Amino acid sequence: MAQNTNIIFILADDLGYGDVSAYGSSEINTPNIDALASSGIKFNRAYANSTVCSPSRASILFGDYPDRLGVPGVIRDMPNNSWGNLRDDLTSLPGLFKSQGFATALVGKWHLGYESPDTPNERGFDFFHGFLGDMMDDYYTYERGGVNWMRKNDQIVEPTGHATDVFTGWATNYIAEQAESEQPFFLFLAYNAPHSPIQPPEEYLNIVEKKYPRLSLKRKKLIALIQHMDDGVGRIVKALKTHDLYENTIIVFASDNGGALQYGASNQPFNGGKGDMLEGGIRVPCTLTWPSNLQEGEYDQPMLLMDWYRLLPSLVDGQIKSTTELFDTLQKEEHERMIWIRREGHRFGGLAYYSISDGRYKLVQNSPFEPFLLYDLQNDGKETLPLEKPDIYKSLLKTLTKHIQTSGSIPWQ
């Protein structure tokens, strides 16, 4: 194993496919995320494993469908409205790297448990400097329901400044510290941005207001929050270059699910958004950069964010040595079926809803109270024309039913 290979996984929260300029946005300027896309690999059909936070994050960090991990829905510090509990017998992605001699760290949002045994330090991270909760009610006070969930390992901390800047600063500090060590590191940097509340720094909002005076204030605020996060990504890359780590650091950038339409997000060219099983709710921007080893390219076939659980160790171990080998490996992943789930309280009463796709055809259900609709993604990427193809419908539904039966044996309550 190449001991000088480091990994940074940067995860945005509710960043829409259409809210990154590398993915076609003409309103948002994200030069630092764009640079990752142009200098590495841009995934055009990357899918989150769920349309909301906790299930998607569980799949990234534990490498399976969320309902098989015990996280079919959002984990909250509310016993009557929490819809997941990580299985105790799982090995996390940082746990895999830790066993291979890596230092492991989470900076930013966790959202997979509030207490033992489901804290970051008990789930594979040597170091945790971030936020345990689901969202912040304020980007400057960091509280959720009057509770400060900011931690340094198991200690409550009270930083100052915008949460995006705080997390970026903690991450750059960690990079600087690890640069003095011969030990490779895995850093999972999980921003809260651009999740609600849409609360950008005033100076960023002023810039957007001058450039796009005709946009709604709601849209301007979201653009400013995203561009502020993009600057944070730029600071991470700069820190790597400053410490001569950039060339041999694997950098993944992704979003945990689609953008929230009610806050002005764009998931263009797709319909739907966060909470929906339409493409806009689950297709996400995703890039991979490793300057010393991988050439630039674009991958147009489906991949799921849970694939990183297998791909990243294979890259570091040298099993995947080139962009071509990476693409070949992805094509061998078992994506003859891709399944999405969300279980939720609120208006859904604790019921689950699903989607399943074979890459071309897709069954979609946007609530547990509506029937499945079948779409042909190849010819109808916006999912506007439901099909009547009974054989395909039945085949996909049969596969989904088997998955539900199997995952139903996983306890999470």
Tell how many strands the DSSP assignment holds. 18
Percentage of β-strand residues: 15-25%
Number of helices, where a helix is a run of at least 4 consecutive DSSP H or I residues: 10
**Order of SSEs:** EHEEHHEEEEEEHEHHEHEEEHHEEEEH
Rg value: 20 Å
Low-confidence stretches: none
Summarize the biggest pleated sheet.
Answer: 10 strands, mixed
Spatial arrangement of strands, main beta sheet: 9-8-5-4-10-1-11-12-2-13
By CATH, the architecture of the largest domain is named 3-Layer(aba) Sandwich
- Provide the structure class: alpha/beta
> Can you identify the CATH class of the largest domain?
Alpha Beta
The CATH homologous superfamily of the largest domain: Alkaline Phosphatase, subunit A
Number of domains: 2
Inertia-based shape: globular
Average pLDDT rating: 96
Helix content: 25-40%
The name CATH uses for the topology of the largest domain is Alkaline Phosphatase, subunit A
* Head-to-tail CA distance between termini: 39 Å
Description:
The protein is an alpha/beta fold and 413 residues long. The protein has helices at residues 31-39, 53-62, 93-99, 163-179, 202-211, 217-242, 279-282, 308-317, 323-332, 390-407, and strands spanning 6-12, 41-43, 46-47, 103-109, 127-131, 143-144, 147-148, 150-152, 155-156, 185-190, 249-255, 286-289, 297-299, 303-304, 338-344, 351-357, 361-364, 373-376. Strand 15 (338-344) and strand 16 (351-357) form a beta hairpin. The radius of gyration is 20 Å and the shape is globular. It starts with 5 loop residues before the first strand and ends in a 6-residue tail after the last helix.
